[in-house]
Design goal:
The structure is a homodimer of 191-residue chains. The radius of gyration of chain A is 19 Å and the shape is elongated. The first copy, chain A, has 191 residues and is of the alpha+beta class. The first copy, chain A, has two helices and 13 strands. At the A-B interface, helix 1, strand 8, strand 9, strand 11 and strand 12 of A face helix 1, strand 8, strand 9, strand 11 and strand 12 of B.
Chain lengths: 191, 191
């Protein structure tokens, strides 16, 4: 950030009075510009214990497999976003959304939220951002060809949960520099 | 938003090519500025079925009661944020964090996330942003003196769950113009 969104003057990184971390502050109008993590919301579309994945048609990670997900937009709820992204990327409608996992990625200021959801029909097909969409048996998931670590971890938990048919809501974090932790709606488990 | 953060030129609200909603686009360098919802993260600190609330010392809603919570910062995880805000506002340390509820407020572009947590000691006291902190029996919660609708709804669910000692993770939305809905990790319930 170089310029103030309000008045166009230059900004300087400084710790405002009463604050404890650096913010971009306007040299002209003194507006403090806060920057916060963004949410990515999506679904795990499931039909007969198979999972619908999308091969990305866009960068980053073009050609890699992922779950349908995207940025939460202003004015929409997380469930609206989950349905919209699933529709955009797989042309599929999903039902019976259940909160499944929240993945913290503090090193890139992102928070992923995935719902598991029921895929009712076989009328899915690649949306404009996908090269291909395909149902995978857990045993056939292309683990080395997944686009994002958040998707990798989500699918890892989900495939384990499928065996037990138990899906406790979890909050996990991925941090390349530290050992992560798992906070479960039922109990806390150390990794 | 009036000016581009990158080059300082004026921005115009327009729908970029391939997009479906208006964004602020720079008239100079063509940077597209995306705006997304922000997360507010906090705890429900509990000791012997009593809930710790804070009376706000700052605007908005100075003098009203709330749960300890605040903006998720870049570089921190949701659990770090929940602990930090609880410490800042009540001087208390909480343990055994469990994801409890996510509250969507699409009309103000906010997503609240609350953990229930165990308050281990009576050494809480008002932090700089609180006038007073106090343990409340569910029967004594000052419902008409709560600061925010997200806190009101969270406490309403929590007091009901306390009676049953069951705490399913829920995602709810609050929208003054529409009937809300509840998405539960266990089952979906219509309001």
């Amino acid at each position: 950030m170089n310029f103030c969104t309000q008045c166009g003057a230059k900004v300087t990184l400084q710790i405002p009075e009463g604050d404890d971390r650096p913010r971009f502050v306007c040299n002209g109008c003194a507006t403090i510009h806060y920057e916060n993590p963004k949410m990515v919301v999506g679904t795990i579309p499931v039909m007969e214990n198979k999972i619908l994945l999308c091969k990305r048609a866009i960068e980053p990670r073009r050609g890699k497999w992922t779950l349908p997900a995207g940025w939460l937009e202003n004015g929409e709820t997380v469930t609206t976003c989950a349905r919209r992204e699933t529709k955009e990327e797989t042309c599929a409608q999903v039902e019976e959304l259940r909160p499944y996992i929240l993945v913290d990625l503090p090193f890139i200021n992102q928070v992923y939220l995935f719902f598991r959801a029921r895929l009712l029909h076989h009328d899915f097909q690649a949306g404009t951002e996908s090269l291909e969409v395909k149902l995978f048996n857990p045993a056939d998931i292309p683990w080395d060809e997944l686009a994002f670590s958040a998707v990798h971890e989500t699918l890892k938990f989900f495939c384990e949960d499928l065996k037990k048919a138990e899906f406790p809501f979890r909050i996990i974090d991925i941090n390349p520099h530290e050992k992560g932790s798992i906070f479960c709606a039922e109990k806390r488990i150390s990794k």
